[in-house]
Amino acid sequence: MSAAVLTPLSSIGSFYAQQLRTRPIQTKSVTAGIIFGLSDYFAQTIERGKDDDDAGDGKNKKEIVQSRILTSFLVGLCIFGPAANKWYSTMFKIWPSTALLPTLIKAFLGQLLFGPAFTCIFFGAGMIQSGSFTLMNWLRKIKQDLPNVAASGAGFWMPVSFVSYKFIPEQWIPLFTNVCSFVWTIYLSLVSNRRSKE
Fold first, then answer.
1. DSSP for 104-142?
2. Residue 135 backbone zone (phi > 0: left; psi -120 to 50: alpha; other: beta)
3. What DSSP designation does 114 have?
4. Contact 112, 161 (CB under 8 A)
5. How far is the CA of 13 from the CAs of 17, 20, 57, 176, in angstroms?
6. d(Cα 188, Cα 184) in Å, to the nearest integer?
7. What is the DSSP letter of 196?
8. 30 burial class (0-12, 13-18, 19+ CB within 10 angstroms)?
9. Tens place of pLDDT for every residue, the chain, 198 residues?
10. Residues 175, 183, 153, 73, Cα dihedral to 10°
11. Measured between alpha carbons, how far is 184 from 61 in angstroms, rounded to an integer?
């Protein structure tokens, strides 16, 4: 790569590292918010493309729902960022080692506890944004979609968690998982905004 590209990237990386040292929770939260908002934007773009294929003429193209992007941004900013920071910090306090067994335990607990809890919150936030939230609708959505999402999540997040706990320095894990969650949150946003079966 040329110096014209590497110099700005190096400056951004240094700035981000400084922010992680001085404002860790805020930095991780803003990062999560931006990635969640972008993920929802891309999820909506995918949905629009699918709708165009189904309609055939492209005349009924759905608009991008700004409130949905904002909701995803706020979920990342206000819930996922702080929760992930606390989760990883707690996991490293309980199991500081990066040996195989503690790493597998941390990854397994993330799939058993953190992932499903956050997915339920994400479903609820999406339903609140769309105006369809009731306790019964939310519980129906969880019953209908959580098992498949959790199974898909195990295939995606177990390797991500293993790599993050084993090889990534603790302060950089939320950034690494946020980058990985870009793809996952597109999927989660698509599932979350799919109409529940009546």
1. HHHHHHIIIIIHHHHHHHHHHHHHHHHT---HHHHHHHH
2. alpha
3. I
4. no
5. 6, 10, 45, 13
6. 6
7. P
8. middle
9. 566 666 777 888 889 889 989 999 999 999 999 999 999 999 999 888 876 666 555 566 788 999 999 999 999 999 999 999 999 999 999 999 999 999 999 999 999 999 999 999 999 999 999 999 999 999 999 999 999 999 999 999 999 999 999 999 888 887 888 889 899 989 888 887 776 444
10. 70
11. 25
Which single residue is written with the structure tokens 């929760």? 83
Instruction: Indicate the pTM of the whole model.
Output: 0.84
Structure tokens at 109: 């607990």
Amino acid at 184: W
76 with 35: CB under 8 angstroms? yes
Which token pair is 100?
Answer: 């195989």
Nearest residue to 70 via CA among 37, 107, 27, 22: 37
